[in-house]
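ok so i was messing around last nite and threw this chain in just to see what happens. nothing serious, just curious
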Amino acid sequence: MSTLAVPTLAKSSIIGLRSLGLDEAFVEKFIAEDPSVLGLGNDLKVLERQRQQDKGRLDLLLQDSAQSRRFEVELMLGELDESHLVRTIEYWDIERRRYPAYEHCAVVVAESITARFLNVIMLFSGSISLIALQMNAVKVADKNGIVFLKVVDSRKLRSDDSGLLSSSKSSSHDEWVKWAGTAVMDVVDKCCEIIKQESNRERAPYYTAGYVGMTDNGRSNLFVYFQPNKSSLWIYAKLDPSEPWETRVQEAGLDYRSDGDFRVKVTPKDFSENQPLIREMLVEAIKQDEES
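result:
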């Protein structure tokens, strides 16, 4: 019987970028050579470095073409300060007004982000799409590297606070069939049945005028919910991280969004052809919800 090899681990330590003789220009170039190091997606490309704005220069403008999404990235060595945070938001606002056809997300990157600024960033939730990344130089044996850690993502709104879910007027399965049709609601029913079968807690669907949700032991729990339309539906699921699922549903040819709760758009035909993938996604959402 074969045994797994025990990995060899080396002692590591966090060091300041400036202590290595590095500056913001070096970090900018490092990211530009491979934007995936930020952990925001594997298909990012650099549209422009040092993009001229009315109030200064944006360090990096990145785009994920598959999702029609752009990231306005501002870098800072040392501890995040007020001016860099404000500047990041200003650049994001300029770009989203200039190019409204794209989804836009402000990204601030610094070596240290204090609790004060984390609290401020969280206050923006629901009005500003903003990600904060903490970067650290790491020394492992005789080599140095840079790691980026997502410390806050204001796109991840509480589902029960989002605008879609404000429409909580009660409805019924029959009313949704009249609106979306039998075929689409059959997909909703099958998804709800999967959740009921795979969950360790009592789950059941409930119907509002804006969405179809699931109860958890009799209480609303929007770890998964559905928004049916006349020929398709959006399946919303709390998945963290969502990036692996973005890759998988994209490879399956399905439309999706991840600006908040991860969601996949499926037609009855899509569901029939990708039912194992949808089941796996729902099971993972159940697992994460029951472990939280």
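not much to say yet. Confidence is low (pLDDT under 50) at residues 157-167.
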